Amino acid sequence: MIDLMNRDPALPWTTRTTNLAHFLIRNAARLGDRPAIIWGDLTLSWAQLDMRVNALAAAMRNRFGIVAGDRVLVQTPNNNQIIESMLACWRIGAVWVPSNYRQHPHELAYLAQKSDAVLMLCHEESEPHAEACKAAHAGLRDVICIGTRFGTAYEDLIAEFTGQEVTNADVDRDAPAWLFFTSGSTGHPKAVVLTHGQLTFVTVNHLNDLMPGTGPDDRSLVVAPLSHGAGMHQLCQLAAGVPAILMPPGRMDPAIVWDLVEQHGVTNMFTVPTIVKMLTEHPSVDERDHSSLRYVIYAGAPMYRADQKHALHKLGKVLVQYFGLGEVTGAITVLPAADHHVEDIPQARLGTCGFERTGLHVSIQDDSGAHLGPMETGEICVAGPAVCAGYYRDDAANAKAFRDGWFRTGDLGHLDAERYLYITGRASDMYISGGSNVYPREIEEILLTHDGLSEVAILGAPDPKWGEIGIAVCVRATGATVTGADVAAFLMDRVARYKQPHRVVFLEEMPKSGYGKITKKLVREVLEAQGIWPDPDAERS
Fold this sequence. Notes:
The protein is α/β, with parallel strands linked by helices. 29% of the residues lie in helices and 26% in strands. The strands form 6 sheets. Strands 2, 3, 12, 13, 14, 15, 16, 17, 18, 19, 20, 21, 22 and 23 form a 14-stranded mixed sheet that branches.
């Protein structure tokens, strides 16, 4: 008899888990002819998707020599290929490394180096990104072009390798599946290691806590980039056999969103508060039938109460909020539809981001790691199977982020007596604009390379459209005549658009603490005293 209480932890059967690509195998067998991806005129059934994933996996393994554990960098907007790349990587045991499509080439080149990527899949419109990655990272062996403008054409590979069967790789519970890029307080990107076992748990957790009862008769509309939180949402749809409906290329048009909701009977979507606001304020929300919606899941930033009320009036009780970080794959708290109220009643718990997700434990801790009681403010820490395996090759970041088995979020908050969580501040200066994390120090360091600037501080200010926007507070170098327009032009080709400050303010001198340190609190007080904090409608100086 096997002694389960005293088993040898080195035995391989102790940690064997299901390869995430098995979700596709299961769907192809059970739901073969039903739609898996709908994108304009293209409809792929589960059987066709499985065939294409098989072909890409075979090409990656047999043409490019990709083996288990290799990292594959992906730079593309939403399309069927990004979903196929995810599943093909997992099928052969490789690690999927999706990027934020809006990043500049030099930013992506850093990710290629950081992840030690050996293969890249790149949309044809991002050729400069591919060139920057090849120039910066000698370990990048090949580039597959989603299109025809350069490298090896994606669809040519699918045609060539169709019919070559690839069996899902055996994977350990702790085998890396996804490198999820986030940033620390320094602004330098860090690669969060998400594993097959962890992602399997998060998938079940999302389905249970965010969208219970989801199944093959549902329809999911993809309105956010699949490289980040929407990618986790898509994995849940894959697990449940739900077809994904993709938006047409280009800027999001609310009218098209509501057209697709009505046309396909969409039942769920994942988005951010700014998009919920945009969708529910557009006239087309009243012109199309959206009664099929069961779950409109939002995360990434707090939602203004007025916007929340407006959305509830337009859509009914379908809003579901969750709070989470990339390191916990979004799974920290949930505020379900039943806890969203139009009326400002006690049950509305204004300002809460919900209660602990199933299987997760939230602890409010002081600087020493001691657990605090209800209504006591401290750092939000979390433990449970949704927590990542750590940061890839970053011992310093791991040492800072983990303490006694708890992951330290860097956010400050408190739990009430019923364990609803309230976020009251951030341990770092990070702010969230349009659902994307922005880390001021990264932009500050770039601005300080400008000859006309001597000191810089960037603050996140409340904004009714974007949630928060950046305000760059600058001190000119002696004799310099740099303007706000000059600052904006300087940043244009150096950082992604969503990271660029919306406003530039110049001070004669930067307020400092008694230790000579620039503190954001003092800078904010000076702006308040001058009547220019916050002023989201103002033009750049």
